[in-house]
UniProtKB/TrEMBL annotation:
<dbReference type="Pfam" id="PF01315">
    <property type="entry name" value="Ald_Xan_dh_C"/>
</dbReference>
<dbReference type="InterPro" id="IPR036856">
    <property type="entry name" value="Ald_Oxase/Xan_DH_a/b_sf"/>
</dbReference>
<dbReference type="InterPro" id="IPR037165">
    <property type="entry name" value="AldOxase/xan_DH_Mopterin-bd_sf"/>
</dbReference>
<dbReference type="InterPro" id="IPR016208">
    <property type="entry name" value="Ald_Oxase/xanthine_DH-like"/>
</dbReference>
<dbReference type="InterPro" id="IPR000674">
    <property type="entry name" value="Ald_Oxase/Xan_DH_a/b"/>
</dbReference>
<protein>
    <recommendedName>
        <fullName>Aldehyde oxidase/xanthine dehydrogenase a/b hammerhead domain-containing protein</fullName>
    </recommendedName>
</protein>
<feature type="domain" description="Aldehyde oxidase/xanthine dehydrogenase a/b hammerhead">
    <location>
        <begin position="21"/>
        <end position="125"/>
    </location>
</feature>
<keyword id="KW-0560">Oxidoreductase</keyword>
<dbReference type="Pfam" id="PF02738">
    <property type="entry name" value="MoCoBD_1"/>
</dbReference>
<keyword id="KW-0500">Molybdenum</keyword>
<dbReference type="InterPro" id="IPR008274">
    <property type="entry name" value="AldOxase/xan_DH_MoCoBD1"/>
</dbReference>
Length: 309
């Protein structure tokens, strides 16, 4: 049947029965034997350094298999993406940053054990307030899609000065967080059947991601062929699942420390606001010039937005 004849016709989606009945096997539900459950340790200061982590109470809890911190985490080989380069130093760069994780037999034990870990910090000054006239504002060399930051064509100032009709408006939008129905889940299995045979190592990920995950391979010391990625269902994205985030590295590091055991983690709704990206607030000034009959003769659009330090 051609496309024109399909328009307006009822068509059954292949995955509709599974999704409607709640039986669609998303990444978190993919069957594996004896999975372990991860709950992260996150910073509660916006900037500084971790002075100490006391995990003795958590480690003594029955069912806890691992308390992972920067002191015992496997080393990442390359800093391919600063957002993913976690547990490699005591530095804290933002509130909610992953500074460790607890892995246990059940999600309840992992979450309870994480609450027993005591972290002390050396605080550092921070400035997280965005404003268009910030003294450290700058023009990046490139912006989205590697376009030039500033482009000009014609004498806009002259057109604005002589136009019989002008409009000068400033628009602001707040920070917006994408929150799809399915929060970020991941399940990681580190296979290391032969420690003496590097090619026997591989990582299997069950993930809900639309983005390119191969940046993870060199960070973990793997070739792309040594990574197996399953994305059965995304569960909604709205931009947040268009690229890898730090929870993938966190779970992979835990799996690497416990080779052969599946380690699974699904973010809480609260954690979605800290480590999975967002649409930043933006300040936009638009100026228009037009002739008396409404024909546009000039347009300017100046935008200021925050970026990561």
């Amino acid at each position: 049947m051609n496309a024109e004849r399909q328009i307006g016709q009822d068509r059954v989606r292949v995955d509709r029965p599974l999704k409607v009945t709640g039986t669609a096997p998303y990444a978190y539900e993919q069957p594996t034997d004896a999975p372990l459950h991860l709950y992260p340790l996150t910073s509660n200061v916006p900037r500084g350094r971790v002075r100490s982590i006391d995990a003795r109470a958590a480690e003594a809890l029955p069912g806890v298999q691992l308390v992972l911190t920067q002191e015992n985490a496997p080393k990442l080989l390359v800093k391919a993406d600063p957002e993913l380069y976690i547990l490699q130093s005591p530095d804290v760069l933002y509130w909610g940053q992953f500074i460790g994780a607890v892995v246990a037999d059940t999600p309840e034990i992992a979450r309870h054990a994480a609450s027993l870990v005591t972290v002390t910090y050396d605080d550092a000054p921070f400035d997280a307030h965005f404003r268009p006239d910030h003294p450290q504002a700058y023009r990046p060399r490139r912006v989205n899609a590697f376009k030039k930051t500033d482009t000009h064509e014609g004498d806009v100032d002259a057109a604005l000065a002589h136009a019989p009709v002008t409009v000068d408006r400033t628009y602001t939008t707040p920070t917006e967080h994408h929150n799809p129905i399915g929060p970020h889940p991941v399940k990681a299995i580190w296979h290391d059947e032969s420690p003496l045979n590097v090619t026997a190592r591989r990582l299997t990920l069950y993930d809900a991601n639309q983005g390119h995950l191969m940046v993870l391979a060199p960070m973990l010391g793997l070739l792309p062929a040594q990574m197996i990625i399953h994305t059965p269902y995304v569960g909604g994205s709205f931009g947040t699942k268009g690229m890898p985030h730090a929870h993938l590295i966190l779970t992979a590091l835990a799996a690497k420390t416990l080779p052969g055991r599946p380690v699974k983690y699904a973010m809480t709704r609260q954690q979605m606001f800290d480590t999975t990206g967002y649409r930043p607030e933006i300040h936009q000034r638009v100026r228009l010039a037009a002739s008396a009959d409404g024909r546009l003769t000039a347009l300017t659009h100046d935008a200021v937005a925050p970026t990561a330090r």
